[in-house]
Amino acid sequence: MKYVEIVCARGCTDSVLALAEQLKLSDCRLGPVADEMQVLRLLVADDKLQPVLDGLQTRLAGHPASRITVLPVEIALPAAPPAEREQENAASAARETLYAEVEKNARLNTNYLVLVLLSTAVAAIGLLKDDVAVVIGAMVIAPLLGPNLAFGLGTALGDIALMRKAALTNLLGIGLVVMLAAGIGALRLFETSSAELLARTEVGLDSAVLALAAGAAAVLSLTTGLSSVLVGVMVAVALLPPAVVLGVMLGGGQWSLAAGAGLLLAVNLVCVNLACNVVFLLKGVFPRSWFEQQRARRATLIYALMWIVTLLVLMLLIYLRQTLLG
Questions:
Q1: How big is the CA angle at 303 (ends 297 and 306), to the nearest 5 degrees?
Q2: Is Transmembrane helix one of the keywords (predicted)?
């Protein structure tokens, strides 16, 4: 349940009230504010939030002074009938909510770089010291997951700017992790024979299945608002540890093990992005206008095909590597 407040010109109120009647909203309040404006407050079920926001943006497009604010509702009494509650529980988050949640994780700023530095240090220590708890701690920080989810949402919405921002943040983040880890590996202060370290140099079909399932769970946790699930997903996706192992092995000159870690990292990245494309498409996350919807769906299909082809190539490389290593 959400509380939607609209501040608009007096001439727009009839249009907004007509939208509320059309969507059969349970509660609508109208009151005056300063500067010849009106304020309308709507109590909106989660399954009707996206149609309400789309309708409001369409009706208020020519009025730049208008404002739409969405607030969470802890409880509303009397409660809705059970059938309506079930329908609301199955609803996906509005695209505007998804965008606000995901876009901030794609920003290349000081906070992101510090998180990358800290998580790399934590992961490297945990992997080299063979400490599972420390490795899991680095996974929970998960700075590399956000840009990939943002890239998937940008693809679903046909938002080129978000895709570019997410891709740049992702590439620089991974590059920074690998370089820092390579520096640690070059110092040769630790043995590189720990079980946690070597486990990230092995990759197979099960790795792809795990990454696909974890990526799909990450997107579902966003679209359904189950943020508590995301912590477990961060551990399951695990983009950071293979990137750290790749750097450590490169720094230590262990090229074969570095190739295994690189393949695992590539498989995880491809599977997470493929899962994002598929889940966002199935959950009906698309732009508001018809033209943008067609463009976004075309982009989603193109990128999904690209990820599938890339995954098949990676599976072939994994098979060849396993064959050569016996």
A1: 145
A2: yes
